[in-house]
Design a protein that fits this description.
By secondary structure, the chain is α/β, with parallel strands linked by helices. 52% of the residues lie in helices and 11% in strands. Strands 3-2-1-4-5 form a five-stranded parallel beta sheet, sandwiched between helices.
Length: 253
């Protein structure tokens, strides 16, 4: 089941699905189903071409990102028992000198630090697994401490491998520490699925979305196909696939 799930997730990325359909078209061509093979091949190329256009990628992503408003002022958010920051994104800035919160507009960690500095919660749960000593959660902790959050305020969750286990193991830590309400920090794209999973694990959630970089405003930035737009479309399609799976699970539970 795990291999099947991983395969289906991979197919949410446009280029992967295009390649899979082209292989099917090649098989049909060998079976002399020429017209069907041609239609499939054309559809496969059109699928990736459509999602490689930045305007289309941004449209798809905004349908998820706009569900939760990015709060401009952390002090305007309600207080909670803890802040939960989900892993994701790079942490190369941790080793750079002179890094400040102002320079980390798109960082989940920086958003968590802003909430902590604004007194929104006294503790921070950092969720992200990995192999060996240097798990993602521990790298996140280094970043938090560099930005001024004391180590004593941090709770480390380093067993998770995906969003489902992020929610499961973070909820376990929350219950162990009497935490009922959290400020959940993740990217705006990821927030609808993450929020649903945390709620299903019995945690009251206040969503704190973090924006991601968007395409420029020039005609070329919006309409010229690019691998970057194709990748961004794939991430959004993956989120929709995950939400669909959760809805099906909820109906069959």
């Amino acid at each position: 089941m795990s291999l099947l799930r991983d395969a289906l997730v991979a197919l949410t990325y446009p280029l992967a699905l295009t390649l899979a359909v082209l292989l099917l078209a090649l098989l049909l061509q060998r079976l002399r189903w020429t017209r069907t093979a041609g239609v499939l091949a054309l559809a496969a190329f059109a699928w990736s071409a459509f999602w490689s256009i930045p305007h289309n990628a941004e449209w798809l992503r905004s349908s998820l990102e706009d569900r939760y408003v990015v709060a401009p002022d952390p002090a305007s958010l309600p207080r909670a028992d803890a802040i939960v920051v989900l892993g994701g994104g790079g942490y190369t800035w941790v080793n750079r000198p002179g890094v400040t919160l102002e320079k980390l507009k798109y960082s989940r960690l920086a958003a968590g630090v802003r909430l902590y500095d604004a007194g929104r919660a006294p503790r921070v749960i950092l969720s992200g697994g990995g192999e060996g000593v240097r798990t993602e959660a521990r790298n996140m902790a280094r970043g938090m401490e560099k930005l001024g959050v004391p180590h004593s305020a941090l709770l480390i969750e380093e067993r998770s491998t995906d969003t489902t286990t992020n929610a499961k193991y973070s909820a376990q830590i929350a219950r162990e520490h009497g935490i009922h309400r959290v400020l959940l920090v993740t990217s705006a794209l990821h927030m609808p699925r993450a929020s649903l999973l945390f709620r299903r694990n019995g945690i009251e959630v206040v969503e704190v979305s973090v924006p991601e970089p968007t395409a420029g405003e020039s005609w070329a930035d919006r309409w010229l196909p690019s691998p970057w737009a194709l990748w961004k479309s794939g991430r959004a399609l993956k989120e929709y696939a995950g939400l669909l799976a959760l809805c099906v699970e909820g109906k069959t539970a």
